[in-house]
Design brief:
CATH topology of the largest domain: Aspartate Aminotransferase, domain 2
Number of helices: 12
Number of strands: 13
Number of domains: 2
Bound molecules: pyridoxal-5'-phosphate
Helix content: 25-40%
Order of helices and strands: EHHEHEHEHEHEHEEHHHEEHEEEH
Shape: globular
Length: 361
């Protein structure tokens, strides 16, 4: 018997495994494994979703016009240079399908976000990983990997799972040194959490030419991971490509309605950022006090370093015994670390207390 076989590229990747959400023995475990934002969904978005139900027999606006206008107003960007997607993952995949493919090379950093490698391999690209320095993207290591086959470079800034930030001067140096025909994709999924002075999420480099794209998401600070909504900001040539390759109704009516309401929620962004900055500092200080090393994070999570893989696993098991789920990052080449999402103050206290008990017990 012979069965249909998929393209060979399909079998070059393992199915994506996201942060876990269930824990046997706990009806409501504390989920700090997917960086979903500390405060749940914006109340206005919940109302907007319910309202959108009344017209769900209608196809959504394929151009996501109202949503793009709202994003443009919030972030001071031209809506014509915005394209929305089913999560920013979709935008990243569309970029790779459009600019990558067999015979092309894609460069990412050693501990860069997993989707670049998965989508790159699926599209038939050769994926190259540049070594990092202090768990931070190293521009020179990336440049050393560039060949005539290089089509795309992906940088998450801040990066997930390391949380580290590449200064704007380094981003600019990278763009200037890359060949003009190489597309630089700046994944700014955590942009709203950054409070480092001089940070630019990617808009400056997008505006400066025809070869940079910035991607953003509603899944983190805006608390809409469940409806799947992301967007990209790009020069006209790239927007044209994305509008040809994206499915016609890739942003559904509920996602668009929730996104518009989330942007309009008074003070939501400011509250989320302010909380994150102080809660992240406090949790970092407590972990340091306990003797657990952390890496400097500009995002809504902390990478805790347990030095040895066995110790990270033991810490994870201990947290699970308390009903707390964090993220193992062995698949990112960091088996000695755990990534911990910044939750509410109470949630941060629970995880800090559990880790103190783990270290002293
Ligand atoms: C969470 C995350 C995304 C995915 O966002 P979606 O919009 O939910 O697809 C993209 N990039 C990075 C670095 C992330 O951490």
């Amino acid at each position: 018997m012979s069965a249909p076989t998929a393209r060979a590229e399909v079998f070059s990747v393992a199915p994506y495994v996201g942060g876990e959400s269930a824990l046997p023995g706990f009806t409501t475990p504390l989920k700090l494994s997917s960086n979903e934002g500390a405060f749940g969904p914006p109340p206005g978005a919940i109302k907007a979703l319910a309202k959108a139900g009344a017209t769900m027999h209608r196809y959504p606006d394929g151009g996501a016009t109202a949503l793009r206008r709202a994003i443009g107003e919030t972030f001071g960007l031209n809506p014509e240079r915005i394209v929305c997607g089913n999560g920013s993952d979709e935008i990243l995949s569309l970029l790779i399908q459009s600019y990558g493919g067999p015979g092309t090379e894609l460069i990412m950093s050693a501990h860069g976000f997993a989707i670049y490698e998965i989508a790159g391999k699926l599209a038939g690209c050769t994926v190259l990983k540049a070594a990092e320095r202090n768990l931070t993207t190293d521009v020179d290591a990336i440049l050393a990997l560039v060949t005539p086959a290089t089509k795309m470079v992906f940088i998450a800034n801040p990066n997930n799972p390391t949380g580290t930030l590449l200064p704007q001067s380094e981003m600019e140096r990278l763009r200037a040194a890359l060949p003009a025909e190489v597309l630089l994709v700046i994944d700014a999924a955590y942009a709203e959490y950054v409070d480092s002075p001089g940070y630019n999420p990617g808009t400056a480099l997008v505006d400066a030419g025809e070869n940079c794209v910035m991607t953003r998401t509603f899944s983190k600070i805006f608390g809409l991971g469940g409806v799947r909504l992301g967007w990209g900001y790009a020069p006209a040539n790239v927007i044209d490509v994305l509008n040809r390759t994206r499915p016609p109704f890739n942003v559904n009516a509920f996602a668009a309605a929730a996104g518009i309401a989330a942007l309009a929620e008074p003070g939501w962004l400011e509250k989320g950022r302010a909380h994150n900055t102080q809660a992240r500092a406090r949790l970092t200080a407590r972990l340091t006090q306990i003797g657990i090393k952390t890496h400097p994070s500009e995002a809504n999570f902390i990478l805790a370093d347990f030095t040895m893989a066995e110790r990270a696993l033991a810490a994870d098991e201990f947290l699970r015994s308390r009903g707390i789920i964090v993220r193992r990052v062995a698949s990112y080449g960091l088996p000695h670390c755990l990534r911990i999402t910044i939750g509410t103050d109470d949630e941060c206290n629970l995880v800090a207390t559990a880790l103190a008990d783990f270290t002293h017990g």
